[in-house]
Amino acid sequence: MSTFKAIVIEKNGDEQTVSLKDVSDTDLMDGDVTVRVTHSTLNYKDGLALTGKAPVVRRFPMIPGIDLAGVVEASSNADFRPGDHVVLTGWGIGETHFGAFSQKSRVKGGWLVPLPAGMTSAEAMAIGTAGFTAMLSVLALEKFGLKPDNGPVVVTGAAGGVGSVAIALLAKAGWHVIASTGRADEADYLKGLGAAEIIDRSELSGSGRPLGKERWIAGVDAVGSHTLANVLSMTKYGGAVTACGLAQGMDLPASVAPFILRGVALFGIDSVMCPKSRRLEAWTRLAADIDRATLAEITTTIPLSKVIDAGADILAGKVRGRLVVEIQRD
Prior knowledge:
- Helices cover 29% and strands 28% of the residues.
- By secondary structure, it is α/β, with parallel strands linked by helices.
């Protein structure tokens, strides 16, 4: 019986503890594919789970981590064989099923997608759920029929994971990107990603009017609450906004005015239970559209042993771009 390293969240009454410890194959949960995890990433949701700031984890003990990339070690699933390189985002891993902050994971084959050709496991995790969500947002805006010629696009939470990748994708596609951030010192970083304008998040984070001045035709919002309400109120006639985050809150203190007076559309972006066909479409586009040099510039790599501390940092807004976790080398 082999043992390997994993971060484990345990709970005794109301007290949560998190530690890096040895676990064994017999501790893993049911699944038809066992993956040797080489890389993961740290998302805002992972920070919430590691710190216990929100009820992300729904069973204990739990190995957190909602994204993984690695190599199939064993499989009884017809779609995957030992040696295959795979990616998994969402599907409740790290919440209800043992997740990615572990050197080994046993999962359902239906949750996996093949690692895109020409992409490394580290690059896939530099994209991760955040970049995957950004791509789903871009696809939603495109399928609605919006194009760069229609006007600017605003991206909120711009220095975070979703925001950083969204800016890079939209700018490369030719959009005039307005980046909203509360970190003024990140202006050069955001412009380097392709942002044409930087606005302070205070312009959007307070109580607003049902309808504001029309400023953009599209938006990618990772913040929620008043910020999303204000983004909607300032969206031009016939525009659309994607909602994919809740950093400010889960509430939406808005009115119906943007929808019935300007025909604005609001698209909810779910990356957790997203169907496989849409996952494959998004990963195919990411492999084709993401600029590898830009991706490298927005990525910091940390070892598994640094994840627990980094969980608090991401909630405190101290993390720029993407954090890749090197679980073990390919």
